[in-house]
Specification:
Largest sheet: 8 strands, mixed
Helix content: 10-25%
Low-confidence stretches: none
Number of strands: 12
Order of helices and strands: EHEEEEHEEEEHEEE
Distance between the termini: 20 Å
Structural class: alpha+beta
Number of helices: 3
Number of domains: 1
CATH architecture: Roll
């Protein structure tokens, strides 16, 4: 099994306290995540770290400068008491074709929704992704993303901690594997409670996050 899934775009580390989690990542790795931007109206913002190539880590949490969004924040960040690797994203060559292919194989990843955020330098990033409401509840099945004509987040010179491996546990790994196959990707899966972990290479040696 390849330690890095096919088509991987990014990992999502959700946290109830973004500043504290960014500080902890910096302390453990010696690498400081870069400010990504705000998700206006959703009540969140993020910091980013390149995982090597066109892959990155998104650390996302509540934005204290935004008012309460009046709806649950993305990735259920309000429901956590500690940082948690919640899900991941893949970037297929053709998003719409990948959705149709998955549906033909019995898995509906959801329809593509348009989203955007503005980088700290003012650049507007726009993308489409499959609706998380339709995703597998475990978070182990990735959502799909298409950056369109926007620059990929890794093209802005992010600090880097190369991804060494990504793995997960699930009560029924074969169920997850079938859905991953429908999406044209893979994940190192073993039997256990639902959970994900990843290991990055850093100036302080390999560091694992859960």
């Amino acid at each position: 099994m390849n330690a890095i899934p096919a088509l991987l775009d990014h990992l999502v580390l959700a946290t109830p306290d973004l500043a504290a989690t960014v500080a902890d990542f910096t302390r453990r790795t010696g690498v400081t995540p870069a400010p990504g931007g705000t998700h206006v109206g959703l009540g969140t913002r993020n910091h980013l770290v390149s995982l090597g190539g066109a892959r990155y880590l998104e650390i996302i949490g509540p934005d204290p400068e935004q008012s309460e969004p009046g709806q649950p924040r993305p990735f259920d960040v309000d429901g956590f008491t500690a940082p948690h690797t919640v899900t991941w994203a893949i970037s297929p060559p053709d998003l719409d074709a990948a959705i149709e292919s998955a549906r033909a194989q019995g898995y509906d990843p959801g329809s593509a929704q348009a989203m955007s955020r503005r980088r700290p330098d003012g650049t507007l990033l726009q993308w489409r992704l499959t609706d998380g409401d339709d995703a597998h509840p475990s978070g182990l099945v990735p959502f799909l993303i298409d950056w369109g004509t926007s620059l990929h987040p890794t093209a802005s010179g992010l600090p880097t901690t190369p991804l060494l491996s990504l793995s997960a546990t699930a009560p029924d790994p074969d169920e997850i594997r079938r859905l991953l196959t429908a999406l044209g990707t893979n994940l190192d899966l073993t039997t256990g409670p639902v959970g994900m972990s990843f290991t990055v290479d850093t100036p302080r040696g390999p560091v694992t996050f859960h």
